[in-house]
Design brief:
33% helix; Rossmann fold; alpha/beta; 6-stranded mixed sheet; 509 residues
């Protein structure tokens, strides 16, 4: 679906954008456009192609096929600097400012006004910065050190820097991820001010409430393809969720569920009051021995953050974890492994498989780390152990000395599972274990999860595919906006009811 706008011409337009990384197609013929004076949201789960599209627009990478037009003229940006010079500004989630410098120095960095003698004209720089800040309604001292200001103010300074040139398009990548409600309100005021000036703003966020509050239109991507472009006022939340997840259904009815009675679950692990910034807020989880507990929710709901906090990958701000009734403190991965808690990251390439090492080295890596540098595992023992897991999990090709980076995605995922299972954990947290692998490998991983649970291992299972969560899990904890809405037996749920709960606005709860 393409929405017809009243404006005569888009400010930026992408036609047929295609990007391939080896055998993987990250973008597949995507069309995208933005108009002056609008706030546009780009929506999709991890792997949908959002980041790739933004990088192509901003000159960080080049499309293999397709073209970009700016104000009706075809453009090609070899570098982000050239895109910025043409009027495309970007403020990333991780603010790329220098806290040891002043506000003015950050806003004018690389464009400092000079005196006739070539030195920096500090007075002119502060005056120019003050004018930019005042234009946004911001009362910030240009001479003050950036480090003395809150993260929200630093975010606004980054926006001031982006628009201090003749910006036509402003891309905001997850700008509210670390802000509280008052700070979000101030950011939205600035966005509306820029909108009134005719700036086209691309607002990328996983918070549905914020998208519906600030955005005029929504473009949805899924698996590198364009699903459609929609007016926000004409797209129901449940329809947006369905388009993001690739599920169509008719007349979904919102079903409300209460928490499953505690007496129904004999707790082996209890996590209470888990909180971390605005990513997790007072979440409780109970996990029984031999249970598969699914964590369901959209990107940014807190599902990964909860699993990482429980398994010692990240340290929460608050909360207690008990194992067999005893409070434990898995404050880092090594301690967590000692308690039998393991985690398989959703980012298999960055935090999982080491592609330059062999299958043998990858499988025995965690076990060797647990033993320590003074208790080296013999190469023969490594080969024996790796061979046993290759056979048990059906890893192909069946060679211990194959480089892991040359395996298929499904076999890489099995190698990562073998590494964790070699530790004989009591609890295994699997974050998107079937993402990016073929259907046959998915079925094998799902079967393996069920077998592990039948043999007494407890599994925390995270997937964006709701059908998969329902199929694998015995109970499901639904998260939204860093909060747990309910924990419900999977037999009492359907994909439609899960979607409806995910899509319900906060004020309807």
């Amino acid at each position: 679906m393409i929405v017809t706008m009243t404006q005569s011409r888009p400010i930026v337009e992408v036609a047929g954008a295609t990007v391939r990384f080896r055998a993987e197609t990250a973008l597949d013929g995507v069309d995208f456009r933005m108009f002056p004076g609008e706030v546009h949201s780009l929506m999709g789960e991890n792997g949908a192609g959002k980041s790739t599209l933004i990088k192509g627009i901003t000159g960080a990478l080049h499309f293999d096929e397709g073209q970009i037009s700016l104000e009706g003229e075809r453009v090609d940006f070899p570098t982000p600097a050239e895109a910025q010079s043409a009027g495309i500004g970007t403020v990333y989630q991780e603010i790329d400012l220098l806290p040891n410098l002043s506000v003015a120095e950050n806003v004018m960095l690389g464009r400092e006004p000079r005196t006739r003698w070539g030195t920096i004209d500090w007075k002119a720089m502060r005056r120019s910065t003050g004018e930019v800040l005042a234009g946004l309604g911001l009362d910030i001292d240009p001479a003050s050190a950036l480090s003395t200001h809150s993260l929200a103010i630093q975010q606004l300074v980054a926006i001031a820097r982006a628009i201090s040139t003749d910006v036509k398009v402003l891309i905001l990548d997850e700008p509210t991820s670390s802000l509280d409600l008052d700070e979000v309100a101030e950011l939205f005021r600035v966005i509306r001010e820029l909108k009134e000036r005719g700036v086209a703003i691309l607002f990328i966020s996983h918070f549905l409430d914020q998208v519906y509050e600030i955005c005029d239109r929504i473009t949805v991507l899924r698996n590198g393809k364009l699903v459609g472009e929609y007016l926000t006022t004409e797209l129901l939340r449940i329809d947006l969720v369905q388009k993001m997840l690739g599920r169509a259904s008719d007349d979904v009815v919102v079903r409300r569920h209460t928490e499953a009675p505690a007496t129904q679950v004999s707790a082996m692990l209890e996590a209470r009051g888990m909180s971390s910034g605005n990513r997790l807020s007072d979440v409780d989880v109970v996990l029984a021995e031999g249970e598969v507990l699914g964590l369901a929710g959209l990107l940014g709901s807190g599902r990964s953050e909860l699993a990482r906090a429980i398994t010692g990958i990240d340290r929460p701000d608050a909360g207690t974890i008990s194992l067999d009734g005893v409070v434990i403190s898995p404050r880092n991965p090594r301690r967590a492994i000692g308690f039998g808690l393991t985690y398989a990251s959703e980012d298999r390439k960055a935090e999982g498989i080491i592609s330059q090492l062999t299958v043998r080295e990858n499988i025995t890596l965690a076990l060797q780390a647990q033993r320590g540098i003074f208790r080296r595992m013999r190469a023969s023992r490594q080969r024996e152990l790796a061979a046993s897991w290759i056979e048990a999990l059906g890893i192909r090709p069946a060679s211990t000395e194959q480089l892991a980076g040359n395996l298929s995605g499904g076999n890489q995922q099995k190698v990562l599972l073998a590494r964790l299972l070699a530790l004989a954990p009591r609890i295994l947290a699997l974050d998107e274990p079937t993402r990016g692998i073929d259907i046959g490998a998915k079925v094998e991983v799902q079967r393996l999860v069920s077998e592990l649970a039948e043999n007494g291992m407890s599994v925390i299972f995270i997937s964006a595919e709701l059908e998969e969560v329902l199929r694998v899990s015995s109970r499901i904890t639904l998260l939204r906006g860093g909060r747990a809405l309910a924990t419900v037996p999977s037999e009492d749920l359907s994909v439609e009811s899960l979607m409806a709960m995910i899509a319900a606005p906060d004020d309807d709860e």
